[in-house]
Amino acid sequence: MVTRDGQLGNSLTRAIGERVAQELGWQLQFVDTPNARIDEALETGRIDLICNTQPDWHARAEHLLWTNVLYHDADVLVVPEGEPAPHSVSALHGKIVGTSLGYHYAPALTEAFDKGLVQRLDVRDIETRLRMLQRGRLHASVDLRRAVSHLIRQHRLEGLRVSQWSLEEMALSCVIGIQEQARAEQLRDVINRLQEEGEINELVSLFD
After folding, report:
1. Which whole-number Å values give the CA distances from 102 to 17, 54, 150, in the listed order?
2. What H or E segment, with its residue span, contains residue 96?
């Protein structure tokens, strides 16, 4: 996701958060949280929920409250426009790939990082990764297809291509901390209802 001056930019995360807060009549605050600290933030009540996630990414997923699957997405590679589109992890061997600190990647890509076959360079902000890719400081960047495609269109970032090959397909939900059980269940139920009524899908379609 993109932040500017500490504020969350236009994104699906923001759109879902604002719609849910409107439905509940709650005040909304987006809290910048590193990926590696998300579980702690949920369990301590620093944040109420995070979307764009799935149980496999959380060490204690069974201790959290989950919404229904809200939408599907995939991790894809962004490469310079003049470069061949990668269709396998082996095509990345010897290259520098922009990644997000603490993010969970597909097993094949993670193994390539661990073995040193592909060099990962953690860059927290997606827009910074894309700018680095434009300047030749990265050979590729791994990002969610919907988010990166929207950002490239929105900011008219030239010279970049989103690979059609998916490293990993994902069914994404929101997860809620349960320090206050009644509040957590109310939040889950509202999100599920908005999903069942098609409102979440309408928001998702704005970022296709």
Report:
1. 22, 14, 23
2. strand 96-99
Tokens 């439905």 appear where? 23
Matching residue, tokens 């434009």: 134
pLDDT in tens, 143-158: 999 999 999 998 899 9
CA–CA distance, 127 with 5 (Å, rounded to integer): 13
- Give the helix/strand (H/E) hosting 120: strand 119-122
What are the distances in angstroms from CA 68 to CA 35, 86, 113? 21, 33, 32
**Would you state the pLDDT for residue 2?**
43
Residue owning tokens 């490293």? 167
Say if CB 134 and CB 159 are below 8 A apart: yes
Residue 57 main-chain phi, psi, to 5 deg: -90, 0
Phi, psi (degrees; rounded to nearest 5) at 102: 85, 0
Residue 26's contacts (CB-CB under 8 Å, 6 or more residues apart) are: none
Tokens encoding 95? 């290259």
Q: Among 4-8, 19-23, 103-107, 185-189, which stretch is predicted with the lowest mean pLDDT? A: 4-8
